[in-house]
Amino acid sequence: MDEKFEIVAMDYLSGNLTEGEAKEFETFLEAHVECREKYEELMQSWEQLQAMQTPDPSEKMDEAFFNMLSSVIEKEQGKAPKQSIVSMLSGIFRPQWVIGSFLLLIGLGVGYFLRPEVEPIPTQTIAANNETEEVRQKLVLTLLDQPSANQRLQGVSEANKFENADDIVIKALLKTLNSDPNVNVRLAAIESLTNYVDKPEVRQGLVQSIPNQESPILQITLANLMVALQEKSSIAPFKQLLKQKELDTTVKKRIERSIESII
Amino acid sequence: MQALTDNVLMMKVKSGDLDKLGLLYERHKKKLFGFFYNMGNNASLSEDLVQNVFVRILKYRQSFTGEGPFTAWMFSMARNVNYDHHKKVTREGVSRNVSPEQVDRGTGDYLNEAMDLQGDAHLLRRALGLLSAEKKEILLLSKYRELKFQEIGEILGCSEGAAKVRVHRALKDLKTIFLQLETR
Q1: Which end of chain B has fewer CB atoms at under 10 Å, N or C?
Q2: Which residues of B touch A61 (CB under 8 A)?
Q3: Residue B8 CB-density burial (10 A; 0-12 exposed, 13-18 middle, 19+ buried)
Q4: pLDDT digits over A114-125, tens only?
């Protein structure tokens, strides 16, 4: 009871009670004379304490304080560069950055899962490539069989479009080179075959076709090609060519030079 | 007027804006000085102790969390400063603190004397001086309106109710001593 009174009295004094509670306390005080006396004594000393005057601090205190503060600030500024590095580092971890990088990660993640299905497409294109290669192969073979020289030329130029011509095409080209009645077509076949000179069968085919050629242009072209390739096995067929009586003299000289440079 | 509350200012101090401590000092220097002075320290010692409180605030600024009000934090520092000072004095066996009521009249602080001479005020100060340190402390803390009982309890390490009871009893004791002095 005593303690409760003490608590409520303090609350009342310091104005911590609600209006209702305060009224209740007042009626309680009126009813209990003893308590009222106690409360009045309490209030008196409370008010005395509140009214108690304290002298003001002197200006010396202000002076001392601000001296202290400025010296501390100076000291802190001495440490400033170190601090600025720390704050720079902590700047990296600022919420904005964290949120920013978090969003970036989310974006990357979402992008990864929503990415278009990449794998099937290459297989499709490869398949498509295969298909076009096949079609082209057929086209080349058909074109090379055409009676029109124009179309056979077209066939050879189609053959140039292969990234990797297969044996069938190469055989067809070699056949064209050896047996095509038109010089231009044969010439084009040589040019087309130079794309595959690193294949042994192509070199061999070229060398073997040397004695078959009657056109001077083709003979010279082949001679130049053999020099460029430094194909030693071409010497024998060239020598064989030289034995032919009807050989053009310029071609003859040219072939002789070529043989020398190959050797 | 207090657009920048004490807590906001103190948080700025904490984050390195030490200039803001000057504002806090201006706001609270009188209260702190009064606290030390009424705790029984003479004026110049009280000034030193106020200074110590702010040195301590600077030193421990990182421990300010901003959860409770700044004044509660500041007064618990003040309490420690006062306690440390008196511990040191008793250990050294030198009584450097001379309470106002122990000062013989005519020692120089004429202004204070003139005020103290005004009857009741002087008696009250003497009565306060005779109270135990704990009671004096709690009365002085409760004198500052911005400290709620709950915060006083926090400073002293007791519950809100206990703080009220203690203030109440300290007031009662103060009254008793005051009356004794008066009848003498």
Answers
A1: N
A2: 29, 33, 47, 50-51
A3: middle
A4: 877 655 556 666
